[in-house]
Amino acid sequence: MRQDGEQLPQWYRTAAAASWRFLVIVAAATVLVYALVHLRVVVLPIILALLISTLLLPVVRFLKARGAPDALAAAAALVGAFLLLIAIGTAIAPSIGDQFTELRPRAEDGLRQATDYLADPPFNLSEREIRDTVDEGIARLRENSGPLARGLSSGAVVLGEVLTGLIVTVLLTFFFLKDGPRMWGWTLSFTGRRSREHANELGTRVYAALAGYVRGIALVGLVDAILIGLALLIIGVPLVVPIMVITFFAAFVPLIGAFLAGLVAVLIALVSGGLLDAALVLGAIIIVQQVEGHLLYPILMGRTVHLHPAVIVIALAAGGILGGIVGVFLAVPLAGVVSVVLDYVKDEPPPESPVVDEPEPQPA
Residues of the signal sequence (predicted)? Predict the structure, then answer.
């Protein structure tokens, strides 16, 4: 007599077996994500330290090649980066401090002025409905940003997490730069002999991809900020320095960041110089974006991390839901890591980038 399961068609049994395995994988991934979110005070500094180490590693290698001890080279790179940030902040802080207070009201005025153009021919949209929608959106932004700002300024728990995270990040960055190869070799010692070679190759590829992405995107953001800043100076748009700062950091949020930074620049130009200046700024931004997409990315990013725009949008949405602003910043590099792992499984060639140095040999 045949069992009940044997009476079912093969495709049904296959689908059922695949379904419960998929559900187990989803459940495990969900538990892992929630655990990482709850342990963000530990997990986030590790991720940030890895990303920062990719920027400082060339300096450490330069100092080591000239006879500096490991600890001295790592400490010098960290102190040098800290002093550089202080110097840049001291140079631009006086102008940014006053101009950033004007940035939001001017952008809001530009948004309202844009609604006036939409209400006139040839658009002939309802001015009252547009204004009500814009005012409602601005009010919601203010409501959402107010509690966040108050929480960050008055929340002792949040302040403690931030300070703890900064200290842990600095210490981990120092140890990654000083003892990175030895730490990686110790990690590989927990893998079996057969899987050690694969783990070493995969880890090297992931770190190379992260290094290429972080360095490349930082250079892309710097060039974008300089080019757009020059265009704004030539056109005569105010608040150039804050817009350049926003443009630089917006580069770390692909697609969405460039759109928002460009929108702010166009709205400021609309308020300060009218429709002609706004059109000129929009044209300059489009040209810069074309230069970025066809010249800067191929040169600086190489074959490091290439993700489809749909994947980037999904990663940004998931990162924003799970981790807020921090999740948005980390979404694309983490998605790039997943892409590198999948490429390794498919026997694709390793990531390459002109800004990535040859990795140091890792101990087996």
Answer: none
Query: In a 10 Å sphere around its CB, with 0-12 CB exposed, 13-18 middle and 19+ buried, how is residue 345 labelled?
Result: exposed
- The number of helix segments (H) and strand segments (E) in the chain equals 11, 0
Q: Name which of 360, 355, 320, 334 is nearest 51 in CA terms.
A: 334
Q: Locate tokens 């997409």: which residue?
A: 293
What does the pLDDT look like over 7-54, one tens digit per residue?
A: 677 787 788 888 888 888 888 877 877 777 777 778 888 888 988 998
pLDDT band at 152 (very low <50, low <70, confident <90, very high): very low
**CB hemisphere CA count around 245 (13 angstroms):** 13
Mean pLDDT of 164-184: 90
The residue behind tokens 């979404």 is 331
User: pLDDT by residue (tens digit) across 204-249?
Assistant: 888 888 888 888 888 888 988 999 999 999 988 888 888 888 889 8
Question: DSSP string covering 107-167, please?
Answer: HHHHHHHHHHHHHSTTT---HHHHHHHHHHHHHHHHHHHHHHHHHHHH-HHHHHHHHHHHH
54, 104, 312, 346 from 302: Cα distances, Å: 16, 36, 18, 20
Taking 3-state DSSP, the helix, strand and coil percentages for the chain, each rounded to the nearest 5, stand at: 85, 0, 15
Instruction: Pick the more confident residue, 188 or 160.
Output: 188
Distance, in Å, from the CA atom of 193 to the CA atom of 203, rounded to the nearest integer, reads: 16
pTM: 0.71
